[in-house]
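Q: Got a minute? One more chain.
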Amino acid sequence: MKVKHWFSFFVVLSSILLLTACGSNSGSGGDQSAAPAEDDLGSDTETGISYVGAATCIGCHEDFSWSSEEVADYLAGAHVIHSDHITQADAADGCLDCHDPIGDGPGLESMIDAANVPADGLAAVGCEACHGAGGDHYGVGPIPMAEPGIAECAACHDELPESHLTYHPEANNIGTNYVASRHYTASVRNEAVCSRCHTDLGGRLYKDVTTNAQLEASVFAVESDEPIQCRTCHNPHNAGGLLFEEVEDHGHVVASGEYATCTSCHMAADAVVATTGVDADGDGELDTDWNTTETMYHETAYYRLITDTHYDDPATTDTIEGYVVKTLDDRACRDCHDVHAVEEIRADDDSSSFSNTINDQWAKSGHAGTIGTIKLEVAEFYDETLDLNRTIEQTIAIKEAGVTETEAAAWVHYDWDAEDRQSCQECHTATGAKNYLTDPSTYDAANNDFSHLDGWEAGVSSSAQNELLYCWGCHSDNQGHLRNPGAISRPYTVDDATVVLPDLGNSNVCVNCHGARGNMDSYEIGGAALTGVPSTDISGYAPGFGANTANVTEAHYLTASATIFQSLTRIGYEYPVSLVDGEGNPVDPYADPSYFAHGSIALNADDPETGSGPCAACHMDTDEGHTFEVVEKDDLGVITGLKSTVCVDCHSGAHGAALVAEDTVIDGVTHTAADAAAFLEEEAEGYHEALALLEAELLDKGLTFSASYPYFSGATWHDEGTFGAAHNYNYLHHEPGAYAHNRYYAKRLIFDSIDWLQNGSLTGSITIDEVAYAAGAEWFGADADTNIATRP
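A: Always. Here it is, folded:
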C-alpha cells in the first residue's frame, strides 16, 4: 500500500533542525544577505523587529531543497488564495487583521495565477504573521517562531465575528475549544512507543508508523512535552490541508486525508485485533484471523479504538454492528465530531462506561437502534461477569455486538439501499434523510449514493449493509445546525388537497419520518374510495394481498406529528358521530379541545420560546436531549419521573393532573413529581389496555392482528366500520405515545371503534370488563357498577 503524504520522516526531521538555525549556510541556494526590511511593512510592536514581507521569505526558501515544497504548498494554500471578496480594500473594516496582518499580500500577486488575484488587491496571510518578524533573520539571525504553536494559530482561529459564522459555522472558538479538549489536556507520553500519538513531535516524526510491529521497532522517546496540536494534524503551509493526504492502494484511493489523519492514532474502523490462540467467537476453535487492518496498539482497551462502534461487518446482513464510516469522504470524521473540541470518552481510566456526550446519547437512542446500550451491556458483561475487562476477548465481543430486527427493525428489516426500496430511503437511511431534508423539492431517491456501503452499485446491486440515522442525516454540520426543509408536505390528501404541516422550526426535520405515510383518504377498496359510511358492506374483501383485498398499512409507524396535527392530517378513521353544542349547532366530534396547544409548543412566543417546535422542545429538553426521552422509566418500563421540563412549564392542573418537577402547591393542593410520573404511567397503562380491548373486539370479528405486513388476517372485513376500527388499531398500536401527543383524539378513535364493533352502530357507550381491563376502564371513566363507559 502506498501512502501519499506531505512530509517524509527525513524531511520533517531536517526541517525542524534547519529552521532552528536557518541561515547557517547549510543547504543550498538562496541569497542569504538579502536587503533590509521594506520600510512600508513596519515593525513588530512587541519586539521592534522589522517585517520583510512574504516575498522576501520566498526569495530564499523557494531555492532550498528542504523548504521548496513548503513554499509551493504555501502559495497554493488558503493562507494566500483564501477569498475573492476579502481584498486590500477591506482594511478599514478590520478584515485584514486576520486576512492580511502584515499587509504583504500585494507582494505575492506576481507569484500566483492572475485569476486568483482580486481586482482590489490580494489579501494574504504572510509568513511573518505566524513565524514572527524576519528583520533579524538574514545570514545567521534567528526567526522568532520557527515552529508556530497554538497561540499563533489561535490569534485568528478562535472566536469569530457573527458575520463569519454563516461562512464558517464550524470554525468558531477553535483555539478555545482545543485547549479544553482531550487533545490538549490528555497526559503527554513522550517515551518510546507512546510518543507516536501522545506528543506533537512524535506524531509528526513517526506519522508513517501504522502497525504494532513498526511502533515497537522504530518509535523512540522524543525531547518534547507538547501535546497534540494544530501542526500535528495540519500541514501549516498548505492551510486547510492535513499532514496526511489521501491513501492509495494499487492506484485506487481507499481513504481520504481526514480519515487517514484521524485513524493514524485512533486506528481504522476495520482494524483487526490479533486473535491467534483466542476463541473469540465461542465456536470451540482458535481464531486465526479477524479482519483486514492491524491495530497499532491498545487492542485490549476497546474504548481506545473506534472499531468498537464504527465498524459494521458486511457479512452479517441481519445485524448492524456500528457506524459505517465514509472512508473516502473529506468529512469522514467531522460530519459527526467536532475534532477541535474532543470530549472525554470515559469517566476515568478504569471506567468502561460511556460518557454523556451527544454522540453517546445518540448511540443509546432509537435513531441508533440503541446500539450504544447494547455494546455497553456487553462491555459490562465481560467486565463484571467474566472478569475479562481490558482483554482481546472483550474488545472483539464489543465490536461484534450489534442491533437486529428485535431492537432496530427500522434500520435492519429490509435491505434499504436496494433499488426496490427507494421510496423508503428518505426515512430508513441517513443518506436518504440527508438528501430529502436538504431540499424536499428536488429530492430524487434515484440519486442517493450508498457507495460507502459494501457491494452497493447504483442500478445494479444493493449492499450487505444498512445505515442507522447518523448525525449528518439531520444536521448540516457538527455544531448542531439543522437542515431546514421548511414546512413539510405529506404524501396523502384530505378532501383531495395535499396535506401540508405548518413550519415547525427545528422540528421540521422530524416531521417527514413521523408524519405518517397515509390517512383514511389513502384507502380504496375495489377501486373506489371509502365513503365514510361505516355500514357500507365490504364483506367481499379480505385482509391481505391480491385481488378483492384491502390492508391497513398506510399510516405507518411512530406517527407523532400526524397525531398532533390530526385536524390537518385526519389520520384516523373518524366515525360520523352526531354532536351539537348548547345552541344546537353541529360540532366536529374529533375536534381538539380548546386548550390543546401541542402543535404550537416553542413556536408561539410563549415562555419558554426557543423556536424548537413541539418535537425538539419536548424530546430534547434535557441534558440528555439526544436520547429523545421525555420520561424516565425503570427496568420494567414503568414511568418513574419526568425528564422534560416543557410539560411542567405548560401543565398546571387545569386540565389534568399537574405535571410538576418538584413539589408544588396548586389551588391549595400539593402536587409532587412522583404524582406526575404516576399520572403519566396511569395514562400509558390505560391507553394500551384500551388498545388491547380493541384488538380483542377485532379478534371476536375473526380478524387477527400480527406484527408483520399486512398486519391483519381473517375471513372478511364485514363492513367499512370494521375496516376503520382495524385501521385505528393498527395506527395507534404503532403510535405508543399517542396518549400524550393528542390524548382525546386517540381516546375518541379507540372508543368509537370499540362502540362500532360491540354494537354494530354508534351508541355512545361501551362495556368494559373492569377485571380484565382495569386500567382501560379507568382511562375511559367506566362506571364501576355497570362497567359502562360513555363517549369521552
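A: Residues 673-700 form the longest helix (28 residues).
Q: Perfect, thanks.
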